[in-house]
Structures are given as structure tokens and as C-alpha cells.
Amino acid sequence: MTDPSSVDADAPDPVESGSLGGDPGGEVAATTLARLLRDGERVSVLDVRDRPEFEAWHLDGRGVTARQVPHVQFVAAGARGEPTAPLPDDLSEPIVVVCGHGEASADTATRLAAAGVDAVNLAGGMDAWAETYLAEPLVRRGDLTVLQYQRPSSGCLAYLVVAGEGDDREALVVDPLRAFADRYVADAAEYGATLRYAVDTHVHADHVSGVRAVREATGAEAVLPAGATDRGLDFEATLLADGDALSVGDATVSALHAPGHTSELTCLRLHREDPAAADMLFTGDALFLRSVGRPDLEAGDDGARELATAAYDTLHDRLFALPEDTLAAPGHFADIADARGHAYAAPLSALADLDVLALDREAFVDRVASSLPPRPANFERIVATNLGLETMDDAEAFEAELGPNNCAIG
């Protein structure tokens, strides 16, 4: 398998350095903006929604300066005959103007452009940002392809593994989102592969799982870690215990129980009988590129220390006992600018020097059990839905998972 930085992935739309590539007062597509931010472009974001909406969830990341000025102030300035409302001093051009649906921001961008400001509208607003879903090739080796799906609005990552030739070409999707179930189905078909499995690494708390939606669309097996039954799993699924394996074409995906973020969390190790190819490890929320998973979403604050202790053992005795060239492919990224190349993945050797891994057991548990950001929005209802204990329609599910995922420790 290859380092993601060496993959010839689809390049973003050509843009001159320091420019968003559109005419002032025009628009930038959410997919284009996502690629630009991922690839290191620095922008300022002017959010013209009301303050509570901005504080609950806004476009951010390294290289992004996001500030809020309500649209009504620009309308009032126009009524007074002024070209624009005052802008925060630290907003440098180019400026992306954002609102909920892309209408008030389009009006603001036009007003700013008329005043000589290099500003463009985010087409479709935060609605379009939430619907943006990029697919980048993480591995292309012979008849093996791994796509990484990236949701910049929440940092969620999913994967499609395609392996085999001819009629034996098969696919498996890891940690699918229900909102994008059709994408995995369409992409597997594009590769001429039968979608055999839809697998969750754990019971997710930040997004509504797509394993059942993929099963309904394709007949693929819905697969969850065996420990999900102890958490109340209430729908039929194939259960994957430590050491169990799934065959996908001529590749094998093996289960590696990795408790810590949750008790049932199970990483998936992709390997082939090819001495020239390093393994890949889909780590779920056990290990990220800059952090590890929080331990409190299953058992609350009272159970956080016990799961943090399990996380220490998982990381030191299980994950980092694997070959150092194993490519770690996490379930989330913390910042859109964390990409290495066009993807979010790195060999275990590149992650071994994370600060949290240098701590002894007691210090690790203290830090992981206490460095906790706010819990994901609606996480209890999302967990219940993913266990089959509650139901949400598509609109409710999409709304419930908006905002940052907050699944990593601070």
C-alpha cells in the first residue's frame, strides 16, 4: 500500500495562490472550498447568520479566520447610503461570506464587491457545506482500491475497499453515513464490484450509521462488533469478534478488538498475500492523526477512567504492536488542514510520537478522562438510533448530526 501523499488523487479546481478563483461578488462551491482548505489555502470567513447559530456551528480550521456580523447590519448600512457595514479588522481578503442557505450571504457578497472588497458567496451556505462529501483514492495497487470519503463539515471519514477481478470483484464499506448511503452504492457499481459488507467499527455517537441503509439498497451484510449486543443492539446484524475475518475479493479484513473510546470498538486490518504491500488499519475512533478517542460517551464521566485504561492497553499492546509501516486510516479528522496529501492517513510510525502516547498509564488515564470537549450534539439519540432502539427519518437524522463531532480528547 502507498503513502497517501504519493497517490495521484483528483486535484482541486485550479486556483491562483491567495485567490478563491471567482469574480468578487460571485460564488465558490462548497466542494471547491473544502479542497482549498484541505490543501492549505488561507481564507477569511464572514458568517452573516445570527450569533447563536454561529456559536453552535461554523466553518473553521487552521488557516481560517471566521467572524460573525449579522446580515441585518449590511442591510441597515445600505439604507443609510453606506457601501457596507464595518468589517472586523482581522478579516483579510479574500473573504468567503456564509449564511444558512446561501441567500443572505449572496446579498452581502454583492454589497462587499460593490464596495471594492474581494468577497465571494459560499453557494448553498452551511446547508451545502453539510452536504459536501469528497471521495479521494487512498490506495490504488493492482486490483485493490481504497477510497476515503471526507465530510469536512464534521470531520467524519468512511472508506470503500474494492478488491478482486472480473466476477469476483467485491467491495466493503467501513463506517458509512446514512446520509450518503447512495454514494457508496454508486461507487461500488462504478468499480464493477458487488457490495458485500457494510461495517461499523463501533456504535457511533456523532452520526447516524448507514449500515442498514446500505443493506437495504444492496443486500450487503450489515456488520457490527460483537460487543454491540452488550450495548443493546436491536436489529439483525453479522457480529464480528476479535480475530474474525471478512473476505473481499482477494483481500482479507480482520477484526482487532480495540476498546477505549467504547467497549466494543473494533479496528479493521486490511491485508493481502503480497509481501510488497503494507497492511492498512481502519482505526475508527481508537486513534486519530493528532489524538485518541474520548472515553466518556458510552458510560459517562463515571466510566471514563475505566475505558481510558482500556484505551492505554489498546494503543500500546495492540495497535502499536503492529508493523510500523501499517497505514492508519482514522474515523475522523480534527481539522480540515490535517490532510497529508489529499487524504487523512499516516503510517503508525508517523503517529508513534503523539504526546499522549508518551505518558505513563496513570498520566494517560488522567489526561484522556479529563480533557473532554463538549459532547457531540444529540449523541444519546444518535446512539439509540444506531442500536435500533429509536428511529429517525432522513431529515431528522441529517439535522441531528450537524455540527462538530467532538469524538477526540481535547
Report on this structure:
The protein is α/β, with parallel strands linked by helices and 410 residues long. The strands form three sheets. A seven-stranded mixed β-sheet has the order 6-7-8-9-10-11-12. Strands 13-14-15-16-17-18 form a six-stranded mixed β-sheet. The chain is globular, with a radius of gyration of 22 Å. The protein has helices at residues 30-38, 51-56, 71-79, 104-114, 125-131, 181-190, 211-218, 300-318, 348-351, 361-370, 379-387, 394-400, and strands at residues 27-28, 43-47, 64-68, 95-98, 119-122, 134-141, 144-151, 156-163, 170-174, 194-199, 221-225, 238-240, 245-248, 251-257, 266-271, 280-284, 327-330, 346-347. The protein has two domains: 4-129, Oxidized Rhodanese, domain 1, CATH 3.40.250; 133-400, Ribonuclease Z/Hydroxyacylglutathione hydrolase-like (Metallo-beta-lactamase, Chain A). It is built from twelve helices and 18 strands. Helix 3 (71-79) packs across helix 4 (104-114), helix 6 (181-190) crosses helix 7 (211-218) and helix 8 (300-318) crosses helix 10 (361-370). The protein starts with 26 loop residues before the first strand and ends in a 10-residue tail after the last helix. Residues 1-18 have low confidence and may be disordered. The protein is 27% helix and 22% strand. Helix 6 (181-190) links the parallel strand 9 (170-174) and strand 10 (194-199). Residues 1-15 have a biased composition (Low complexity). Residues 39-137 form the Rhodanese domain. It comes from Halobaculum marinum. Residues 1-27 are annotated as: Disordered. InterPro entries: Metallo-B-lactamas (IPR001279), Mito_Persulfide_Diox (IPR051682), POD-like_MBL-fold (IPR044528), Rhodanese-like_dom (IPR001763), Rhodanese-like_dom_sf (IPR036873), RibonucZ/Hydroxyglut_hydro (IPR036866).
